[in-house]
Amino acid sequence: MSLRTTTAYVEDVSPGSGALPPRAWYASSDARSLSLNGNWRFRLSDTADAEDDSFAARGYDAGDWAQVTVPGHWVLQGHGSPVYTNHLYPFPVDPPRVPTENPTGDHLRVFDLPADWPEDGAAVLRFDGVESCARIWLNGTELGEFKGSRLPHEFTVGHLLKTVGNVLAVRVHQWSAGSYLEDQDQWWLPGIFRDVTLLHRPAGSVRDFFVHASYDHLSGTGTLRVDSDVAGRVTVPELGVDVATGEPVTVPVEPWTAETPRLYDGVLATGGERVPLRIGFRTVELSDGLIKVNGRPLLFKGVNRHEWHPRRGRALDLATMREDVLLMKRHNINAVRTSHYPPHPAFLDLCDEYGLWVIDECDLETHGFTEQGWRDNPVDDDRWTPALLDRAARMVERDKNHPSVVIWSLGNEAGTGRGLTAMAEWIHGRDGSRLVHYEGDPNCRDTDVYSRMYARHAEVERIGRGLDGGPHRRRELPFILCEYAHAMGNGPGGLADYQRLFEAHDRLQGGFVWEWIDHGIAHPELGYAYGGDFGEELHDGNFVCDGLLFPDRRPSPGLVEYKKVIEPVTVTADGPAGTVRITNRYDFADLSALAFPWSYEVEGETVDRGTLPVPALAPGESAEVELPAAPAGAPAGEAHWTIRAVLASGTSWAPRDHVVAWGQIPVSARRVPYVAATARPAPGDGVITLGPAVFDARTGALRRIGEAAVTGLRLDVWRATTDNDDGAAWQSDLRYGLLWRKLGLHRMRHRLDAVEVGEDALTVRTRVAPAARELGLSTVYRWTSDADRVRLTVSTVPDGDWSVPLPRLGIRFGLSAADLVQWYGGGPGEAYPDTRAASAVGRWQSTVDDLQTPYVRPQENGARIDVRWAELGGLRIEGDPAFHLTARRWTTEQLDAAAHRSDLVPGDTVWVNLDHGQHGIGSQSCGPAPLPRYHLRAEPAEFSFVFSPSAATGTTATG
Ligand code: GAL
């Protein structure tokens, strides 16, 4: 007798049995449907076959079963726990076998048909997504089983339905042969995580249909043909179209683009059903080596989107999907790669409606086979090819009617093999109206696009210039970065440098930032949990938190930066004086939807405002627009023009006046503070007084300025390393975080060499150096005063072999009380040398708490750049030159030691860093380190701060 009988299907490479062939998905028609979402009874077993006999055979007695919500993942509902691995399979790699320990969730739902459920016709039961494998019974009859977690499966059930007391039983296994094909970098989350729906299928109802709606940009016409398995009529009232299925019709139309998502409502009516259509006319083609839509090349300003909700995992509701789309549109994002599986189908409806280019990616990744040099990779093993083709077909058939989908992607990180070729051939054959993408094959054998991930700037530039060589086929293809700018923790740095390349070279058609949202799981103690927080023995820590949104969907500084870098209008001052250059960087839209308010600011205060008359420039056009005369009688001081491009009227995705783009043009330079050294240092009673400042006479340490007590002021070179500083384990380049620690920059010692009281200065000489190393920084603090203010000049000279850049260079000190922070300089948000595009010069204010950026794993954050002056804790600080400002209620060491936000406990002191420089951020948690021009080299440096007492102030921020 074989041990593996009833559950053999779990380890079967085939896609399953019993399900209907795939077809187009649509949300509503006039046929009845019944949602089976809601509370289901639930029982968890440790193995696939622990409960086999009792489940189907014993009349489905769910007596003592628990309850779960469907859609949902049982591990997020108190049954078992989630597991996070990047690419390692959390089970032995022995395809297609899976472990005996195979958490298995039996789901039971009893339902009645609504009183008016039609008696005639058939019905199908649809599952939109079940991870990883399901076997289904209705009223005791087994319907079949399937794999392919993020794809729909339907079963014929009409003949089994009863008016009341239908029992639907679904057995879900966490692991199956399908898991080998679903090794995406994400949490393993079993469950029925998308909708379950019963659909009435009246006689003569629509089965599958394919909307072909192309656009001819030369004639301005669209051609529509709807192919349908069941013949019927297609009407589009707005276009006066009324044709039979299969019959083409050409009419003048407005095309669909992501910038102008024009949809036409239509109806497909067969004898038994009326299906609403939302038709977008557009033509995607590869021509002149470029991806073109409606005859024009595209520039993708994209993101990779996993489905994520911090409490519901991948079980997303419509409101959350819409929030994602609105956030993308409001941040100038124009494209989504649905990494790494087809999303909930409703998401694509939203992309059609609001306008986003979509790369729809198949649910396929076999990344874990890289550990064994790709041996036994399912995509190169014919036994698995039917499963791969099934997945390709289920994606294409489900999503083929979405104008937003312009490219099909075979999957992600699955090596190379015959299975991929089979998928690509099938897709090209079935849908010649779109292109095919896959990143993992350097030969681009099956693809229409040369795609890479995390290529560094220099290589991208070579590719842009066509100097990259490679196989002939690849050299002919347009290039995209399907992943770049790894948004893990603080960062990504270097976005603006990539964008400059994309804009300079036609072949570079943009990229998709990795990734949209941190996959942190809401946790009662930790804030957000990441890998390892559920006791997984194999995990990849916080590598799962690498998004532009925090888990609660608050935009991170990385998203704000991205919005600025990809803005569709640029405002520059490269023309004659008194003019500003406005450039339209949309691919399709003119500027008629935008208005251009300006303001004239002196020292960050608005002195005058108005609106700039900007012509409705066509895509790619630019114009020099005359600025008004500088306002008469404006106060003296540093002045800027700020010009914004805002929505002239509300749209479906943002209200009127929403800022799409902006630019700032400096008019006059800042006057650097001058402090005459007129006061004399006055020793007395263990202290030295110099103007408003009091020092310890023995150590030269600053004790107070005016009423503000100051502790521990000294040179600081350490920052709590960011994920990008630390770099990914596999990085072959220097990983600065590790190097800095090895050098001991996190444990610098400060040796006092001299305290010199001079005529007009107090000078403190020190050497700052790490234990165990011979290199150091000779550092001199020189204090002078004009009686009201005190000026500190810090001079440092590195000695020894400093081939390594510094994390930061500046001073830090503690203030006993500080809450409100005001400053004039870069803001409102965080900025570092290579993440500073979105920082605008203005007057800003915040509380100390709000200066913190809540990275899921705490790390250096919150610096404001180009700060001319700041006020906090009773001190006014002016910089010569401008400085970076951070203030927090814990020390850098505490920040560095914290694993979760909950580890950060506010102390009594506010620790302030005033930095002369910071090292760049880069993207080395997966991609390249900061470009050399953002390195903070250890070089002789001198910088000054002017301190004076300030009354606690409270004016409102402007900027
Ligand atoms: C890529 C992969 C993504 C993700 C990313 C790093 O290699 O395609 O799924 O793992 O790296 O976060």
From TrEMBL:
It catalyses: Hydrolysis of terminal non-reducing beta-D-galactose residues in beta-D-galactosides. Gene3D superfamilies: 2.70.98.10, Galactose-binding domain-like, Glycosidases, Immunoglobulins. GO terms for molecular function: beta-galactosidase activity. It comes from the Bacteria. PROSITE patterns: GLYCOSYL_HYDROL_F2_1, GLYCOSYL_HYDROL_F2_2. The keyword Phosphoprotein does not apply. Its EC number is 3.2.1.23. Residues 689-948 form the Beta galactosidase small chain/ domain. It holds the Pfam family Glyco_hydro_2_C. The keyword Iron does not apply. Keywords: Glycosidase, Hydrolase. InterPro entries: B-gal_small/dom_5 (IPR004199), Bact_Beta-galactosidase (IPR050347), Beta-gal/glucu_dom_sf (IPR036156), Gal_mutarotase_sf_dom (IPR011013), Galactose-bd-like_sf (IPR008979), GH (IPR017853), GH-type_carb-bd (IPR014718), Glyco_hydro_2 (IPR006101). Belongs to the glycosyl hydrolase 2 family. This is Beta-galactosidase.
